[in-house]
Specification:
disordered N terminus, 5-stranded antiparallel beta sheet, 1 helix, 382 residues, globular, 2% helix, Neuraminidase, 46% strand, mainly beta
Amino acid sequence: MIAGFRARIALLHMVAVAAVACQAAGSVPSSVPAGGSTSPDPSETFATPAAIPKGLILFHRLEDDEVEHYFTIRTDGTDERALFTLQGCGCARWSPAGDHVWTMGATGHGTYSFMTMRPDGRDAVVMAPPIRTLNLGPAAPSANGDWIAFDGWDETDPARNGLYLGSPDLRDLRLVMTNPEGTIRNEPFGVTADGSRVLVFAETGRVGGIAHAGKLLAVETKGGASRQLNPVGTVHGWTGVAGGSLSPDGRQVAFAVDNAVFVSDIDGGEATRITDQGAFVSAVSWSPTGDWIVYTRHEEAGSLIALVSPDGNVQTAITSNEGSDEAAGATWSPEGDLLLVERTVDGSSDLWIMDLEGTYVSRVTHEAAAYRMFTWAPLSGS
């Protein structure tokens, strides 16, 4: 296993899948947090049950020992189900159809590969690649679900280490790009609908205060040619969330670097900075409608959620930066009209739904914890 990924998943282990409902079927009253949680509970921000949008959320809670506990939960805060536990991976997402969770698991012969399961944890299947000794890491699909990109590594043959592409059943899996010199691992963020390009973070190691530093690349799947998207002289960093986001039509990429949001055409040309430079920026994500790009700005007083139009002409913070009530890591609802965020009040965090004006619509989880990699299932899975 290559060094960078060894450090990241050396302690990865799969436990038995548990399709356990952790909450009652009814809505959780706003005034009575489940399990006596000390999480934020400002009841005046709760919508009526009928007004809470329907859907299903995938997330993981991160424990102090860095163990990731993965769950699904309904948007109204009910029917929380424990799925599995990983450590040092941070690799679970919805399938494009929203009917399965995609992650990674043990093949049974000493490697890890692509794993799928239903949202309740049933029917977990690990798909072994054609090469028995090949490991496949975090998966990133095209929006239509036809293509999926992986980081691949082989402890018996380093020449196989690189970026892989194939259909979800892995039958046509192929090596697209061997690791460029100095690359520790690849973290694919998305594939264009026609499968012609992959958006990928190529990690090269620590640079100053950036633990996972590297380059954001657009890689051509025929021939493996790559183009660096982040401007020359800047360093792109992986922070545990996707560091780049394809536009809905796959023609542009939005990403954070140098304390600002940039947009670049995936085919060529220089990146354009569309926000002011200032505080550290993370969790950049293009809306499903293409109208907005959401990002988190980490200021001294606290983190906040901000929106910017793709041309940069409109940019606005929609939450406050008061340290006693802050939000981070926004991801989009399937229709692009709402956001799912980690809200922290007086040091306690939970997942909340908010509108595009920064008003909290409803609280989803009811257990104070660190929440990571939370996503809203596409419409067909909601």
